[in-house]
Amino acid sequence: MTDAPAPTTTANPTVFHVTHWKAGSQWVRAVLGAAAPRRVLSPDHDPEWFYNKPLVNGGVYTPVYSTFEKFRTTVSPDLDQRTFVVIRDLRDTAVSWYFSLLHSHTPDDDSVSTSRQILRRLSKTDGLALVISNHLRDAVDIQKSWIDSGARIFRYEDLRANQLKEFSELLEFCQINLPPARRKSIISRSSFERKTWWRFGRERLKSHLRKGVPGDWKNHFDPRHKKLFKHLYANLLIRTGYERDLDW
Questions:
Q1: Which of 58, 164, 222, 225 could covalently link to 10 via disulfide, CB atoms 3.0 to 4.6 Å apart?
Q2: pTM for the full predicted model
Q3: Candidate CATH numbers 3.40.50.300, 3.40.50.720, 3.90.800.10, 3.10.28.20; the one for domain 14-88+141-195
């Protein structure tokens, strides 16, 4: 019996930035795009872009919205790759999604337009409850599927709290090697604060970069939302390290 051939390697590993919606996907994509501009592959507004085209060895795929199981139908574990996942507290994800659907998402497809019409007819309490129980489920499925996958996981909150350190680790993990000064410049230019300089600490509900502050859910959840969230996704916050128990 002959040995199986070794996996094909490239000068640069193929990078996969996996995430869910409202977890800083365009922010991370901006950093990767500036750090490796010739390698980045664009989704081109096609939700199935990642699955519809042959993989490009050495490419940087960002962002990829996919569960682990569906990802593995396209990407073999034998591929020379660096796959990382960015997650966010799902409570903040729900709040961000609510305001984006209500105000800032461009109605490029019928689903956004339909959701906006529904949310405009509902109170904020009922609208946020609808997002928690309905729209959030795809993000929940992505988080659940990757927790125990062995992939490197970065948290949106850590990226916000210590951008230079966390993004430097992210780029090093991806084997995107840059001079320290160049790396620092890219991270600084792409920072959330730089992108939202016009706000000066104020929230703008109709901006797609509305607020982005970790823990903002506390300003919007009422007891009904907490009860609903715990009923649907209680253990996921604990598994992802956002809570120690259900006493929140």
A1: 58
A2: 0.86
A3: 3.40.50.300
